């Protein structure tokens, strides 16, 4: 529904925003001319974010993109349930909005203009009064093995202990690396690294994007191929969420300065897949869309059982304009080829 409304509004909004910008620059010039002191005519954006270091990196990245376009902004730090509860695995807390609910409450209350999230952490369907208006250019999407011993390799056949809390990564490790022992490891990146140093595991399995953004590249022992370790939906992109009460000129300006259209197309295809499966971030489903050299979008995704034994993976290719249909078609194929039964088994076990 939002999509059609957005399409209709888009042109109007951009014209309004352009006119407003023009008026601003004229008035700045006028004030300079009359030497009446500086007349400030910038749009100010209140950015809601969690306060983990990775979340702050993301929010500051958005801040830089806005600043480059002449907008001022401030960060509003918000704690979520996912930040507070660290002693239970995410699949037990329930994935629904565990890292997002408090931010969404403040969007609705008008306390913040935008909420910044890892696209990966977002539920597949949002409430009707909220929407995602931008996805930033994607970082490399693959997972990496992180350790103080960078000679470690998952393919060496050597047995060691890997910490991860993601059901997708656990299942994939069981499938591809049965010689590896997997232990549950929650907490933000810094907490996990501390646990690694305390000896709770020999290595961690993490998204390259987060590791790189936190400057831990030196600890990368191995880059995992996306053909095997297909990433989670949205991995590597930062998403901006707003409430439908946000003034349209702000919406248009933020989107224009932060959205990366090729990434948006890919993440929308992936999210359409996830939505049809009604999967949250605790279900071991995966999908990755890329642009082909022929200008098409290729979407590969599937589902893996918690023990890693059963596994479905399909690829659909189509035009960028039909990205969401691709996601939907992929989901239908996966569901009818046995995914439905697998999902039921997974939901019952979690
Ligand atoms: N679930 C936590 C989370 N959310 C986003 C990232 C990494 C950065 C990204 O993919 O945008 C991570 C950590 C991880 O999976 O290693």
From TrEMBL:
InterPro entries: HemC (IPR000860), Porphobilin_deaminase_N (IPR022417), Porphobilinogen_deaminase_C (IPR022418), Porphobilinogen_deaminase_C_sf (IPR036803)
UniProt name for this protein: Porphobilinogen deaminase
UniProt function note: Tetrapolymerization of the monopyrrole PBG into the hydroxymethylbilane pre-uroporphyrinogen in several discrete steps.
Assembly with partners or alone: Monomer.
Residue span, Porphobilinogen deaminase C-terminal domain: 266-335
Upper lineage: Bacteria, Pseudomonadati, Bacteroidota, Cytophagia, Cytophagales
Catalytic activity: 4 porphobilinogen + H2O = hydroxymethylbilane + 4 NH4(+)
Gene this protein is translated from: hemC
Cofactor(s) essential for the protein: dipyrromethane
Cofactor note: Binds 1 dipyrromethane group covalently.
